[in-house]
Amino acid sequence: KQWYQRRVRGKHFDGLKHVKYLNLRDCVNIDDSGLRVICKNCWNSLKYLDIAGTSITIRGLELVTEFEALQTLKYGEKLTTNTQKHDDIIRRLMERDGTMKDIDVIK
Q1: What is the pLDDT of residues 21-33, one digit of tens each?
Q2: Considering just the CA atoms, what is the radius of gyration of the chain in Å?
Q3: CA dihedral in degrees (48, 35, 28, 3; nearest 10)?
Q4: Which of 37, 40, 56, 78 is the most buried (most CB within 10 A)?
Q5: Which alpha helices (H) appear in 4-103, and where do they start and end?
Q6: Under a CB-based contact definition with an 8 Å cutoff, are residues 37 and 67 in contact?
Q7: What is the pTM assigned to this prediction?
Q8: How are beta strands 72-76 and 21-23 bridged, if at all?
Q9: How far is CA 32 from CA 7, 60, 70, in A?
Q10: β partners of residue 73
């Protein structure tokens, strides 16, 4: 029972170098530090990422710009509250070399 109360830290994702599809929707124990380690390990392989319903903040969303192969991103509307920063992140994702195909805000 205690495991559900702890944050998922980066050690759970160490060594995952070739992950292409990652659905973390409603995993409330995933936060910015967990996403940072996922980024460190999967920056050039991850194509699909769903982080809606997690504990990732706008700072964590900014890490998403480092996923070079990312094509699909889904995230919760709570990350849209800092409008200027959110818009800047989305602009940077869309201005990349054309790999980004789909960005969805989940309500």
Answers
A1: 999 999 988 899 8
A2: 13
A3: 120
A4: 56
A5: 32-42, 58-63, 83-94
A6: no
A7: 0.85
A8: unpaired
A9: 10, 5, 18
A10: 49, 103
